[in-house]
C-alpha cells in the first residue's frame, strides 16, 4: 500500500500516539500488556485498514462477498484486510460503532481505503438517509477526505442505482458526483460479482496500484468486454436461432435470448466468463436475459426488460463470424464510443416502435 | 429519574435503524423505533411495466434477496388471475427454502450471535473441554479437539495482530455476557463453519436463480429457467443432483449445529426467556404451494391474537379475503403527511420529514395493522400458528426443541417460553429445521415431475385494458410480506409493499399502540446504559431489515412534495 498511503502517514506525535494505542487496546477489551502490539499495528498495519460505508442500499453487495470461496469472507476480514467499520458485520453498535469510525479515520488518516456501498441522497439536504444522526452526504464527505482511495461498490455507489431511477424522489447520486478529489474505482453490478470486488481489492494490495480502468472507472479485467462478446449463446445469435418465448422449443435448446429482452449486446461485464457462486451459472445460462445491471442508469435505460435492444441487426440464419463482428459494432450504435450508449436515455423505448424483425 | 438512551446505528442488521429507550431503575420503561432511510422505490415503479416490477422490488433488499421478487410476481399474477406451471412453483419453492436457510444461518451466527457470545473470552477456553461440551450437544464431526485448537490459534493470532477490525469495541466482558469460555470458543468455531454452509446453501439459490444475490429467473407467469434433461444448456440432471447434494450437507448442518447451538444458548441464558415478548398478536401466511393455484401449502399460515393459541384462524389460499381485507397502514407517527389509516390499495403517501419527535412523527416506517391491531411477524409467528393448527412438521421440531432445551436447562421449558427474545431465535432455528426437510422435498417433487415428461415453466401474461388489482404474499425469512398492485392499461398505477420488518419496526399508530420492536423492549434489563447490549439482543432477535421496512406508496398523479429539511 506504500504508494497509496505514503502521503498520509500518521501525523500524531509520539505521546498522543501511545495514548491512542492505549485507548485502542482498552477498547478491544485486551490486557494492557498488548499496548505495544497495538501500537506496532497502528504504525505499520499488517492488514490494510478498510472503512466500509453503507448508504442507500440493500446490502446485496456485501452479501455477494458471502458467496465467494477464493478467498472466502473469513479470510478477507481475518487475514487480508482490517475491516474497521462495516455496519452489517461489526460487533459494536450505536455510540461505540461511531467511536470506531471516528477513531479509524484518525488513526489511519490517509492510509485507509474507503469502500462505499449505496447511493447518496442529495435532495433536501440528504435527510432521506441518516446514520448516527448525520446524513450519508456528510459522512461521505468527511470520511472520503481522509481516505487514500475510494471504491464504489455496486451500481448504487457508482452511479446512483435504483433509487436514482426516474423520478429519483430522493435526489440519489453516485460517489463520483460528490467526491471529486480522490481516485475512485467503480465496481458496478446489481450486485457486482463478489469476485470482482475481491479481485479489485487484492489487485491493489498486491500490485500497489490501481487496475486498468475504462472510461467509467471500471476495472478492465471485469468490464472490458460486452456480455455479448463472450456469451455461450452467441453462436445461436449468429445463426439466427432465437428464443421467442420462455419455455418454448428454442428455450429448451439453449438458443439466444435477444428477442426476449437480453441486454447483453450493450452491457459491459464479465458475467459469462466469471460466472456466479462457484456453480458455473449466470442469468443468461439459466435462461433469462441480461438486464444490463453494470451500466449507468440501467433502471431507466434498459427497461422494459422483456423488450429487445434496438439497433441490433439480427442475422436470421445468414450470420457466422464476419457478420457477427459487424453486428457487434452496430450494437454500439451510431455513436462511436461505447460510453455514449450508456448515456442515451430510453434507448429501448424508442426502439420498440422502430424495429420489427420477426 | 428515567434516562434516555439512543442507539444509532443499530449494527449487524440490514439498513439504518435508530432505537431510543428510556431506562429507569435498570429497566426499559419506554421505547421508540425509528427507521432512518427512505428510497421511494414504489414512487419509481409508477408507470412501469408490471412484468419488470419484480426486478425493481427485489432491490429493496439484498439480504432478503429473492423475497420481493417472489411477492411481486405473485401480486401481478393474482391481478391477472394467472396460474403458473407446477414446475415453476417447485423452482420458486426450492429457491425460497434455500434462501431462507442461508438467511437464517447468517442471521444467527453472523448478525446476532455476538450479542450472546464473547469472542475475547473464547481465548481462555480449553479446546479439550470445548470438544467435550460440543460433543455432548451434537454428533457434528467438526466438534473435535483439533478443530477447536485450530480455531483458538487463529483467533489468538488475529487478536495479537492488534487489529480487531469488525470485532473492535464490541461488548466484550459485558456483565450480561454469561457463557463459559468453552461455549464461546464453540460458538466462534461454528461462526466460521456457518460461513461455509451459508455459502453452500446459497449455491442452490444460484443454480435455480441464475445468480445470487438478486436472482434473475423469476418472471410473471412462471420462471425463465429452461428445463430439459436432454440438453446441455438447461437445467438437467447434473444441476439437479448438485442441488440435492448441497441440500443434504446443509440439512446436516442445520440439524446438528444450528438448532443445537440455539437450544444450548437458550438454555444457558434461560433467564432471558422471560423478556421480550412484546406484541403477542401473530400473523403468518401460508407458503410453499403444492399446486398451480396456491390453494394447498407445505407451510401453514394464519393469525393468533393475545398469545392465545386457541384463537388461531388459518389463511388458506393466495386469494384469501381474510388476509386481503384486513391489512391497513397508519401514518400518524410516520414521516408522511396526514394521520390516516388506509388499505394498501387506497393509500396516498407524501413524505414529510420532521426529525425525531417522540410524541409526534419519528420514523420513515409506517404502522401496518391487521384488523386494527399491531402484529408480530417472523418465524415465531409461523411456528406458533403452525403449532396451533396441528401442523405435523412444526409440532415435531417444536416438541423436540423444547424437550432438549428443558434437559439442558434442567427445568421444564413450556411452549409459552417461545414468546420471548431467545424464543424468536429458537423459532427461527426450528423453521430452518423444517425448511431443511421441505427444500429437498420440493426438489424431489420437481425431479419426479420432470421424469413424467412435464417441462412447462411459463404461462405468458396478457394485460387487458382497464384497471386490475392484485396482491401477492410470501412468508419471507423475516415474516409476512405482501405486495399490492394496481394495474391500469398494462402499466403500474399504484404499488405498495407491506413488509415483515415494517410490521415489526412499526412506530405507534393513531391509537398510540406500540409496534413489536418497541413493545418487546419494555422491561428488558439494562445493566449499563453506556453499553446497552440488552437492547441489541431484543432488537436483533427480530432480524431487522430496514431497507425493506421503509417505502412509500406512489400518490395518484401527485409528485412528492418537498420535505422540510432541519
Question: What report would you give on this structure?
Answer:
The complex is a heterodimer of chains A (358) and B (566). Chain A has 358 residues and is an alpha/beta fold. Chain A has two domains: 2-221, NADH:ubiquinone oxidoreductase-like, 20kDa subunit (Rossmann fold); 227-354, Cytochrome-c3 Hydrogenase, Chain A, domain 2 (Irregular). In chain A, 38% of the residues lie in helices and 9% in strands. Chain A is built from 18 helices and nine strands. A five-stranded parallel sheet of chain A has the order 2-1-3-7-9, sandwiched between helices. Chain A has a two-stranded antiparallel sheet with strand order 4-8. The longest helix of chain A has 14 residues, at 14-27. Mean pLDDT of chain A is 82; it is low at 1-13 and 319-358. With 566 residues, chain B is an alpha+beta fold. Chain B has one domain: Cytochrome-c3 Hydrogenase, chain B, CATH 1.10.645.10. Chain B has helices at residues 41-45, 53-58, 67-80, 86-112, 127-137, 145-160, 181-209, 237-268, 321-324, 379-388, 392-409, 421-451, 500-505, 516-521, 533-540, 546-549; strands at residues 3-7, 17-24, 27-35, 218-219, 222-223, 282-284, 287-289, 297-299, 301-304, 313-315, 327-330, 341-342, 367-370, 467-476, 479-488, 491-498. In chain B, the strands form six sheets. In chain B, strands 1-2-3 form a three-stranded antiparallel sheet. A three-stranded antiparallel sheet of chain B has the order 6-9-10, with helices on one face. Chain B has a three-stranded antiparallel sheet with strand order 12-11-13. In chain B, a hairpin with a 2-residue loop joins strand 4 (218-219) and strand 5 (222-223). In chain B, helix 4 (86-112) runs parallel beside helix 8 and helix 11 packs antiparallel against helix 12. The radius of gyration of chain B is 23 Å and the shape is globular.
Strand residue percentage of chain A = 5-15%
Look at the structure and give the CATH class of chain B.
Answer: Mainly Alpha
The CATH architecture of the largest domain in chain A is 3-Layer(aba) Sandwich
CATH superfamily membership of the largest domain in chain A:
NADH:ubiquinone oxidoreductase-like, 20kDa subunit
Radius of gyration of chain A: 23 Å
Organism (chain B): Thermodesulfatator atlanticus
Pfam family, one (chain B): NiFeSe_Hases
Subunit structure (chain B): Heterodimer of a large and a small subunit.
Cofactor (chain B): Ni(2+); Fe cation
